[in-house]
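Proteins fold reproducibly. Next comes an illustrative record:
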Amino acid sequence: KLKNNSFPNATTLIEEFELSRATAHRDISYMRDRLLAPIAFNSTRKGFYYTEDDFTLPFEDSPKLLFLMGLLNKMADEVGLGGLPEMKKLEKRLSELIAPGYDQLMSNVLCKWIEVESLTPAIFETIVETVLKNRILEITYRSADAKTSSRDLEPQRLINYQGRWYLLAYCYLRRDHRLFHMARIETATIGKKITNPPHHAPNSLIDEAFGIFTGKIRYHAKIAFTGTAAELVRRQYWHEKQMITERHDGIILSLPVNDDREITMKILQYGSMAEVLEPKSLRDKVRLEIKKMSECYSH
């Protein structure tokens, strides 16, 4: 009605939405003060109007923004943050602001990760607080081989990789930067304020080589892909410094690597359509893993 210059007023809202007069006046004030709507009252027409013709309310006639907000909420669920009270409040608030469009969007958007690990909200909130307040993080950490240790950390960066959360931090126990799988943090406490110059991690520590197991480049891997694997990998982004070379039966992917673990899993994912060309050490490792796998099925 404001857009159509119908000059609605509190009585209009009362009749249209069956509100009390006090609620109608609060809604008008909310639009003006919180949503920054350029509303003015015309005493001659006894109603409100927009002083700016091109103004639109947040989310009004904005399917892209509506989609983005819904997508962020869905992604939070998929990366283990759906249980945070703040996410529940955001979803409720969005549904109030833009319903029914929001509910329709939620039923039509699917974000799906596998092997997602839920985080304890209290632990996640503690980690975030130490990052924001520049404090030591005291944790109990359970490693992949089920060993438990106590660590004092300088949190550096939160990383979400393939739906899993990691914390890059300076570890006082190891006197070096380490990457901690946040789902393995069993307890977390806010420690004292960091007073000494922080041990900042260089960007090369997380960007230089392929995958989550980062660090200085040890070698460049060359992998040949054929068949449907070549068609898939040709359009994929594995690392910013990757190079793809075409050949008669597919492609050759070259990229920097620090740690063998993840690149080995990626190669095995494509079965016989992936072959390591270089280096020999990686080729031998993949060959040995295939041999062990074959022995599992030899009975």
